Amino acid sequence: QVQLVESGGGLVQAGGSLRLSCAASGSIFSINVMAWYRQAAGKQRELVARIGTGGSTYYTDSVKGRFTISRDNAKSTVYLRMDSLKPEDTAVYYCNDQRGTWGKGTLVTVSS
What we know:
Layout: E1 3-7, E2 10-13, E3 18-25, E4 34-39, E5 46-51, E6 57-59, E7 67-72, E8 77-82, E9 91-96, E10 106-111
Parallel strand pairs: 2-10
Antiparallel strand pairs: 1-3, 3-8, 4-5, 4-9, 5-6, 7-8, 9-10
């Protein structure tokens, strides 16, 4: 059974940084495209960033230049480095393997 476990969320002031981690188990991690989504209160879940098996990346416009997605296949872990955080980045952040598996999410709160 595939499992994704996120960690690294928390409360940070605007302009600060956080690094989220997502540890995968139960699948061949290296062959999966991995992604981070987020869902703010009262809003739909949105794709934040995605990384391919070869390391190619995609970012939604609102985080370009501030967020960096990376992966460590040896550790079956995908990361999301978030810099220059803004209050509008406040959301629950979810890891996804693009095959239907979701983590439980980690809350990121950015205070102004």
